[in-house]
Amino acid sequence: NLFPCLLFTALQILDRIEDVQELIFTKEPDLLRALLPVQTMHLTIIVAHLGTEEAVKKAVLALKQSKTKVEAVLQGKDLNMTFHGIGQFNNQVIYVKMSEEDQKMLSRIAEAVEECFIEMNLDISGSKDFKPHLTFLKLSKAPRLKRRGFRKICSDLYKEYEDSYFGTEVLSQIDLCAMRKKKQESGYYYCECSINVGSRWMEESKEQ
């Protein structure tokens, strides 16, 4: 019910995702309900199951403590995450792919955050192997379609963009978001806390 994740702000990526969504909708209007709003675009790092307020407080602390470890991985440099091409899971989840090189670096950052959650004895058993992907269409979001026999999303719907460059996002903050709480006005998830990482924040804090 809580997940540390990276919020997406790079307009180039979001605009390109909207273009793909529009194309899919034009070809298959039934899939409208399965499209994810671009305001919620994020990369999940881990998934935690926290039953009590006490556990949520611990998770906030764990994320804050992970800042030092994340900065150690980054070593004062920025992580520019490049997105190129479209991938799918079982033809039911469609996502934008992240470059292999950047994935490795982000995996190390995910591990740093994960360590802090484990140290706090928080339940992150729901986390799968870390494969960063930017999901923009999910059949499970539209259960009615499944009942009508709509079980697979055909790659013809997005083939024009299958090998397209989507853009670059700079890692600058990690949010701890709540799945079940009311979303923010912007449409983004309710945020329990955030940490700022990367060189931009290093510069700003030096100036202050």
TrEMBL record:
GO terms for cellular component: cytosol. Residues 3-196 form the A-kinase anchor protein 7-like phosphoesterase domain. It holds the Pfam family AKAP7_NLS. GO terms for biological process: regulation of protein kinase A signaling. GO terms for molecular function: kinase activity; protein kinase A regulatory subunit binding. Keywords: Kinase, Transferase. It comes from the Eukaryota. This is A-kinase anchor protein 7 isoform gamma.
